[in-house]
Design brief:
It contains three helices and five strands. The protein is of the alpha+beta class.
Length: 90
């Protein structure tokens, strides 16, 4: 289960899903929040200064956690912050 914590040193008011501060995933999450919750991979490259290969891996990890969703395909692909996943109840 992922916990929420304030992104340290990012200047963002958003919450990260329990990510390691400074990790690619945390920076991608913060960049998406700063970009209004939606961005193309090129926008994330500029915002995070990371290559597409690392961004795609981070976005996949965030997607598996339910924090990011993808729409479109190829040149029209965009990534969106999803609503916080609901916590599972026993």
């Amino acid at each position: 289960m992922l916990s929420q914590q304030k992104i340290e040193g990012s200047g963002e008011e958003g919450l990260s899903p329990g990510l390691e501060p400074g990790s690619v995933e945390a920076r991608v999450f913060a960049a998406l929040a700063a970009l209004g919750g939606s961005a193309a991979i090129g926008e994330l490259e500029v915002a995070t200064r990371e290559g597409r290969h690392r961004l795609r891996a981070a976005l996949a990890e965030l997607g598996r956690g339910g924090w990011v969703r993808r729409t479109g395909d190829r040149g029209s692909t965009r990534y969106h912050l999803a609503e916080a996943p609901s916590e599972e109840t026993p």
